[in-house]
Amino acid sequence: MDEDGSLTPVVDSTRTSLAGLARPLAKELAPAASAIPPLTILEASSPRLRRLGAELWAHRELLLFLAWRDVKVRYQQTVLGVLWAILQPTVTMLVFVLFLGRVAHMVASTTVPYALFLLTGLVPWMFFANALTSSSQSIVGSQQLITKVYFPRLAIPLSAVLASSVDFLIMMLLLLGFLVGFGVPMTGMTLLAPFFMLGILAAAAGAGTWLSALTVAYRDFRFLLPFIVQIGMFLTPVVYGWEPLPTPWRWLILANPMTGWVESFRACLLGQWGWTTTALMSIALMITALLNLSAWHYFQRVERRFADVI
3-class DSSP state for residue 238? Predict the structure, then answer.
């Protein structure tokens, strides 16, 4: 105790002893503390549209894996396998030829047989319809995957569209066989026909992205989809030609982006390209771009809630 009655020396000595004990203890605990991994929190970000492509490219392997998974699931435990991709357009073509063959001159202004005219429209349309059906149900069908780990949710509907491309390639082989059988000459424009697959692919991706997001919130779209596909087919010049359409109906048909893609695809294969086809393709390109931009924007707004409401 000091002369004034304070305990300063005792307190100082106590602090010194405690500091001496703390140093070796801290050295022993330091390796254990450094061995603990840092806490990482995974959560969905909200990238802007300009970052969307970069994010999907970073997960391109996952996108291809999901597409390949969809292909295997589609033909798993089927007897005919990929032959269904050939039977579907062939049987549909035969049905329409039997019922509309006699009035073919009224619904299609073409110099080629009506069966070939039908098939050149059915192949791109069935590719679009199959891709739309698969992608619209893709988010709901991937419930277990979405609720466990984060990845760009847009990869799910896009992978479903890519998986449908396998059917399109098989149907193209069937179509080429019909072209050779009917004696249609192959020109330079014929080689451009497969490139219109990209336009159809983009249209299916935009419409499928819209429907996949809407189906999560409103399950009624599962029942509306068959009606959408049926009505869409008759709003697309598949069984009829563009030229015989009356003027009031043309504006309604033009709102469908598949009008331009089907007409362009058919014109390339049949050698009937003209300025009308160029105009239809340009309109389809603009509508497809707007469709995809609006679909991606809406999808990014609602994808955070998928895991909660799916």
Answer: coil
